[in-house]
Amino acid sequence: MTVPTCKQLINGKWQESTSGNILPVTNPSTGETIAQVPLCDQSEVDKAVQAALAAFPAWAKTPPQARTQILFRYKHLLDAHFDELYRLVTREHGKTLAEAKGSVRRGIEVVDLACGIPMLIKGETLSETGGSVDYMSERFPLGVCAGITPFNFPAMIPLWMFPIALACGNTFILKPSEQTPLTAIRLVELLVEAGIPDGVMNLIHGARDAVNALLTHPHIRAISFVGSTPVARYIYQTGAANGKRVQSAGGAKNHFIVMPDAPVDAVIEAINASAFGCAGERCMAGSTLLTVPGATERILEPLREAAAAMKVGPTDSDESVDMGPVISKPHLEKIHGYLAQSEKEGAKLILDGRHVNVESAPNGYYIAPTLVDGVNPQSGIIKEEVFGPVLGILRMNSLDEAIEQMNQSPFGNAGVIFTDSGKAARQFRREVRCGMIGINVGVPAPMASFSFTGWNDSFFGDLHIQGTEGIAFYTQQKVTITRWF
Amino acid sequence: MTVPTCKQLINGKWQESTSGNILPVTNPSTGETIAQVPLCDQSEVDKAVQAALAAFPAWAKTPPQARTQILFRYKHLLDAHFDELYRLVTREHGKTLAEAKGSVRRGIEVVDLACGIPMLIKGETLSETGGSVDYMSERFPLGVCAGITPFNFPAMIPLWMFPIALACGNTFILKPSEQTPLTAIRLVELLVEAGIPDGVMNLIHGARDAVNALLTHPHIRAISFVGSTPVARYIYQTGAANGKRVQSAGGAKNHFIVMPDAPVDAVIEAINASAFGCAGERCMAGSTLLTVPGATERILEPLREAAAAMKVGPTDSDESVDMGPVISKPHLEKIHGYLAQSEKEGAKLILDGRHVNVESAPNGYYIAPTLVDGVNPQSGIIKEEVFGPVLGILRMNSLDEAIEQMNQSPFGNAGVIFTDSGKAARQFRREVRCGMIGINVGVPAPMASFSFTGWNDSFFGDLHIQGTEGIAFYTQQKVTITRWF
Amino acid sequence: MTVPTCKQLINGKWQESTSGNILPVTNPSTGETIAQVPLCDQSEVDKAVQAALAAFPAWAKTPPQARTQILFRYKHLLDAHFDELYRLVTREHGKTLAEAKGSVRRGIEVVDLACGIPMLIKGETLSETGGSVDYMSERFPLGVCAGITPFNFPAMIPLWMFPIALACGNTFILKPSEQTPLTAIRLVELLVEAGIPDGVMNLIHGARDAVNALLTHPHIRAISFVGSTPVARYIYQTGAANGKRVQSAGGAKNHFIVMPDAPVDAVIEAINASAFGCAGERCMAGSTLLTVPGATERILEPLREAAAAMKVGPTDSDESVDMGPVISKPHLEKIHGYLAQSEKEGAKLILDGRHVNVESAPNGYYIAPTLVDGVNPQSGIIKEEVFGPVLGILRMNSLDEAIEQMNQSPFGNAGVIFTDSGKAARQFRREVRCGMIGINVGVPAPMASFSFTGWNDSFFGDLHIQGTEGIAFYTQQKVTITRWF
Amino acid sequence: MTVPTCKQLINGKWQESTSGNILPVTNPSTGETIAQVPLCDQSEVDKAVQAALAAFPAWAKTPPQARTQILFRYKHLLDAHFDELYRLVTREHGKTLAEAKGSVRRGIEVVDLACGIPMLIKGETLSETGGSVDYMSERFPLGVCAGITPFNFPAMIPLWMFPIALACGNTFILKPSEQTPLTAIRLVELLVEAGIPDGVMNLIHGARDAVNALLTHPHIRAISFVGSTPVARYIYQTGAANGKRVQSAGGAKNHFIVMPDAPVDAVIEAINASAFGCAGERCMAGSTLLTVPGATERILEPLREAAAAMKVGPTDSDESVDMGPVISKPHLEKIHGYLAQSEKEGAKLILDGRHVNVESAPNGYYIAPTLVDGVNPQSGIIKEEVFGPVLGILRMNSLDEAIEQMNQSPFGNAGVIFTDSGKAARQFRREVRCGMIGINVGVPAPMASFSFTGWNDSFFGDLHIQGTEGIAFYTQQKVTITRWF
Predict the structure, then answer these.
(1) Which of C119, C126, C431 to mutate: most A Cβ within 10 Å?
(2) What is the ipTM of this complex?
């Protein structure tokens, strides 16, 4: 049986790639190949850039409120196709339907934000500054922008980028993950249906070569990226060296601190959702639990029980599943490797998910929730991003010590505290050196109206994705100083 | 007779450099050595960084309105020492006293801006976003920041940087130009007098080695730079590769367009001030005149006469001088080189300032205003930044053609049109691809409340110096999402 | 044949009024009665207020982005019913279909704006202000708000108000003009269809008694009003005396200045559209033409010819009509009265529209474009708002004199200049004492992202309708200062 | 011995009033007359308005950054005269030197804020909105503004008003309380010394007649007022009826809630400072204590002891005094009246300050801290503003009940909770219907960068004093829509 081959959208036309390189797209719940994706080369990237470059002047001159009329129609179409979209996310990524729903909803919220652009890209005036001189500033789009997105949020992360970029008057090239290109295609089809002009939005498929072609192309002005830290750093350095604006979000190692005054049930629910949701494949996943005296004993056993009770299985066919597969066999093996190493270093897997048996889907890439206690703070599972359903546990002697432990991480995405104490929450919020803080919120990923503010090695660049900074990223200011003789 | 040796301020103590490398500081009006400046090495840079790092936590925690109390005192001291400061600028840089005055005034305006920081670094809230969840964002300082400043504005450009950085809660290291370090020293002395705590502000002297030490130091979080485009690009790339925020302003090639409806006298005054002010040594200098039919004949001869009438001479001893020397002998020779080359290519120096005779200061570095007509658009004096009192003239057939000519420049600082037509001014403002537009304003350098928004090869980075972007540059956001069980 | 009777929406139920007072709603193109409208009394107003009050707590607590989901659906429904809506406007008001279209489009833009409220109602934070004290502010809705709207924009003006009020979390009572209630009903029906909860939006019909009941009701927190200046002043004073926020837009007397450098054809088109569009029944209509030497002779005769060529007739059945009827017979007679009086005072009707003969609709309320020259500056048609297709002409000696003449008006809505001169436009913009300036724009009514900023007797209150001020009007700030022991 | 007579500043000249009405100004610590203050009449008010009106055009056209240069000098002078100013406050008002210091510091912070006005009065731009149409808005000053200030903050409250008004380009008339005019005079003298041009700032003295003359004067555009609620309401209604902008802050009845988890010592210190600071004469004073089970017993006795230990006496001569006199004998008698009435209704004065004996100052107006328990919630001392060192105590059964009790107050200034619980603090912050919330902060009066946001009967108007709203209050927007033919 043949599977469809993914097309690219260049200059308003859906077309096959000419590159000849093809990868399979897999449903990780079952291991089945569900599509073929081409890996385009530099010449196809250039075709997309030329299309976007040619479309730029007219789109940039289109009034902001006319650009948003297309986005309002897009919003309506996304809502109308909501079921289809989240099912597609589950099918190619493996997260549960509930998780997929939430992620698509979050993505649509960025379209909502972009619909408000006429209020959000205003410039400034100051008049009578001396000698009848008046000042004004205006925001201009940059030109051709590109988005390079990861496999873990096939709808949400592309939607973090192009709606804002387009609303600001830029033209765009999206290169989704070659592991999860299907949702992106559907997102772009709906944007075409909403009336986006030819060349304003383009979609290409590819991997390393396509990325490098984007990073070095002289006519691309800005790159938005989400992925792992080493790649994020490379993207930033290479893009910057080539004179581009770059916002490059990397990986993370997010910590929970549980204080003795936090309610057990709610904490456990929140930790499980954060550590094991999306099978741990998200940069906002909590992956290290820091307990302080008084909390440890209350939390650990109930946490183990709740994690052990999670049903793991194929997400596309079973709504009762609590956690789906990870993205691929190699990734599964990498997670196993981390665990083996930690055991070798003396850690104890108080819940070991490696031997999960999913009968209904024997070829899926499954690992069940795993809790690692007694772990060395220098171990890989504490210092690196595992990107799987693995929660390391470190016992701290105090809140101060826990904060210090967190602040030793080179990453800086999220930090979470569970407490009823306003004082503890405030200390945590002010002192922790990461950009997104959850007070009793397990996954403090901001909705669209706030920026996704990773710090340190979790983000490279000045202006973050979404929110006010996201809009600033896609625009440049011009200042005009006027007097009349 | 001995001259003083410049000291460095590290951790609140003025101290001699231990590097052993020394350069003379010269009064360009006379060629006299007026001071010795050390070139510090990596170990001294590190000492400054360690001091700034140690001072950071307490300064970051100092309430914004307490930080600004020091800046209010600083503002008062700068006003009180205004005469001394602008005379020092003239002495080490050579610009006229009037020009020096204006530049110091502009610098002080940035202190004024920084005094308002409690209103300008607010974060945001949004409450009741679902399930009793509330959002807030806060702005945090970055840590240790550094400024690397050029010779041409010894007071103004340092003041573009550290007052805002400090007001935002960062600590700072200033490395002024080794050609003009004296004003910077006085600026920092006054800041100490205003009460800045030890280690919060540091001053070092140096050249390439010091710059590289700053760019690669792991504890420096942000670099602000102003200089030539090749160096600005290097600074940006190197700083970015080392994980720092960078705002890096480079050179320029700014054009005037004169329309036939513009009044001759006012235009000529504005062009002369822009092209020959500061001896052309500023990135906002107009250096190419684009005339359109109807304007050319009205403007050229009066312009030549007015430029020829400018008195060139030593600025520190003669208030009647209209234009001072350039910064150094090598720089003078470089300018001569550009002119020789343009003549070789067929251009005609309709005003030739090379043979100016300044009897009262025979060792100064003088060249008088120079007008180059019939110049090849591909010539160095059209395509590169000469940084001298040289104005190239190109005759265009229309406003459209003139704008097209401008937009071929890789630079993007300033563009100026002289006209009474609202329509022409609007077309110019919207279509010209540079960031600072003058409508009948010869030097459209924004005052502190607007950002200094170079485009293209005139600026590397996302967030410009001064204004709203300048504040965003020196701060990072943290988003907190809270619910209570 | 019977006509329908307008219903009221109270607490989510469409219901007949119990008041017993009924007025006819007329199609002014034909004089036909097309509906009956009840005039409700204080008890019905109170029922609506109680419903809105009861619905307020839940609506105020609904997350902003959940409130806007309803508005996004509403936006979609308004677009889908666009034809129906503008035809209804034409039918009950009489303006041309093209004018009705434009006005509905402008109204929908306010819904677009309101969809962006999560970005627009953020509060502020400032942390570490001393002793570990943090500040935050939040915006809260006010409670029950009411809108009282005029006959001349049956869709646009209601849409100026309730979308923003609702998005901010308030509940609302709309009382549309009793002369044009039908469009308002349809607007509210569509909002119900979009999912607005019961009681959040309410619609009542009425006249003076209903208005007074709203103005004095202790549970109404804010009143938005648009109408004539005497009523607007009364609304403001009475609402303020009863402790409410009020934004109350009144009448106007808007002037055009034509400079000699303005192109005749474009100016005439703009003046005709402004002075005679909507039969002059809008507070942004230009109703006084100030000519300066050099412009007068170029403009007047072509203007007279173009105005004379306008086709007047029934707008609901004839798309070729350029101008429709005025709203009612009494209003037509009032306009005639102004013209008779001006003739008595010596003015000359160089185009007299009083005797227009519309054969296809003999019972409509028609008057054709009318130009009054030689008019006394103290005359009613210069000093008062005629609200008909009447343009008074005053000959000025200079721009200065024209600006002075404008600034003598007690009104302050719009002022328009036609010129190519940047200098003249700037002088006009800065010196004219009214809030909305058109530079070569005949009707400078701002789109939704800017406030509708009448000055002087054209507006009573602090915070104008639409734009940033419109949002501030419907919200109140709370400041919280926190420290933890 | 004669005392000085207060002068007025009109049009830059200090002058005696011609009214003939004179009141004594008293040092409430001693009862001594320290000055004579005239009560000016309508004709003098008119002279001040005419001066301010004449000075307005030039001041409005002065560049913002030039206006703030005067304010920077003013800031410097206020700091330089800090001791003199706070001693003057104590002398005419009676609060302790420490309290006076704090209040002057708070006032100076508003000058700090006003120095930042070039960043804070920017307008907006939005370009290319269709057909090459561009939008811009600008902020203009209003014209002549007036401030009417109360006796209780002789420096701070005047400084809330005129620095912002002047920075925005308005001219100003200050009428300080006739009970405490001396500090205001000194404030204005220093502003003159700072270089404010003649007529831009004016000072008059007076009482009811002067207020009415200001409220009805056709050339006054805005009134800022702080006082008691009945007068504040009158000011708002009368000012609004006369077409002015009004911000009118009234009285308050602020509640503390103490939760069982709050630390006793810190709470008692905070309550005492709030309830008895400034002898209870401030609209931010906490005057009702709501205890909940578990907290009552812990708090009451220590609170009584601490309050009983406060030293009451003359503040101008004794730095060890904890609390000074109230403002006047009639006011003292009014407070006694409230207490007598509450006793009659059955309340018990568990600390009775009425019989305090201040030997060193037998003619001062003293009453010591007074605690009233068992008070009827309908009693005057619970429902009305006593403005004395009297704290009523109500025992609540729960936080919910306490919030409900608070929300029954018609006032809406401050509400304070003492707790360590983030959950309780959040509920309090969101549910309490007043505008300024203290979480463990006894007097949540915002510093200048946030608005002083009274709700309900504590404020009449749309735009509050200070902060962003304070700037909006003193400016009006003009929107310009431009296209060029």
Answers:
(1) C119
(2) 0.97
